[in-house]
Amino acid sequence: MHRFFVNEKNILGEEQKIIIDDKEDVKHIGKVLRLSQEDRIEICDGQNIDYIGEIISLTKSEIIVNILERRLSKTEPLVNITLFQGIPKSAKMDMIIQKCTELGIKRIVPVVTERTIVQLKDEKAETKKIERWQKVADAAAKQCKRGRIPTIAYPISFEEMLNEIATYDLRMIPYEQEENRGIKGLLKNNGDYKSVAIIIGPEGGFEKDEIIAAQGKGALSVTLGPRILRTETAGFVALSILMYEMGDLGGI
User: Fold this and answer.
1) Which range among 22-26, 69-73, 171-175, 245-249 shows the weakest confidence by mean pLDDT?
2) C-alpha span between 206 and 116 (Å, rounded)
3) Cβ atoms 48, 76 nearer than 8 A
4) Span 39-55, mean pLDDT?
């Protein structure tokens, strides 16, 4: 069943109707998928609630759907995980966002570090890039039937990140010089976590002083194995291990 996201204001509870008015979705439903009256679709409000609905009318500007069923989404992990990602070059961020969205990330925060090569020229260029990244997250969330769309934050400095991670129950930073502590052992020796921050460097990794600063804020360095992973790989490998060990991937 095809799945779409709508804003909560588009869900008319008393009338048991949902209005889809996003131009791209309207076009996709009517022109690409060629759906029509009485066809059923799945709709999510982006707040972990799913709806099964039946199309009752289609126009060029909106589609009205009759609500048949309302239920809690079963695709969201119990732990809230944020990826603090050192901004990489080219389209690597697109893949990072897409794959982490599929795996259940809640939020992705681009971080400017000492080795960050990419420089956002001005506020307009920054906003444009964030909007594009958010669209990547939207599409991935739709494809993998997420109950929430991950938020792509505006870039922050490494120092701002250090202040922000203090609010998380667990802060981990994969580091190639860490040899003894893995994610499995880290979770085994500690209690339950409701929020986790994963901190990944850009190409070339973090400077030593950045690792020390993060550790000073309570970030625990972990190994991802004997091989050096690229920045576009490390984040979703760490996320995959974390999700598996917490019982979200492949059962308990």
Assistant:
1) 245-249
2) 9
3) yes
4) 95
Secondary structure letter of residue 10 according to DSSP: G
Q: Which of 152, 137, 161, 142 is nearest to 218 (CA)?
A: 161
DSSP 24-66: HHHHIIIIIS---TT-EEEEE-SSSEEEEEEEEEE-SS-EEEE
Split at pLDDT 50, 70, 90, the class of 190 is: low
70's enclosing H/E stretch is strand 63-72
Domain boundaries, the chain: 3-72, 80-245
Q: What's the topology of domain 3-72? A: Ribosomal Protein L25; Chain P (2.40.240)
Would you say how long the chain is, in residues? 252
The answer to whether domain 80-245 has CATH 2.40.40.20 is no
pLDDT of residue 251: 60
Angle subtended at Cα 106 by Cα 193 and Cα 144, rounded to the nearest 5 degrees: 120
Q: Is residue 126 scored above 90 in pLDDT?
A: no
DSSP 8-state class, residue 77: -
Torsion of CA 74, 80, 86, 92, to 10 degrees: 0
Average pLDDT, the chain: 92
Residue 222, beta-bridge partner list: 174
pTM for the model stands at 0.90
Strand 40-44 to 3-5 pairing: parallel
Alpha-carbon gap, residue 143 to 206, rounded angstroms: 33
Task: Indicate the residue type of 190.
Answer: N
Is residue 26 scored above 90 in pLDDT? yes
Bridge-based pairing state of the strands 80-86 and 195-200: parallel
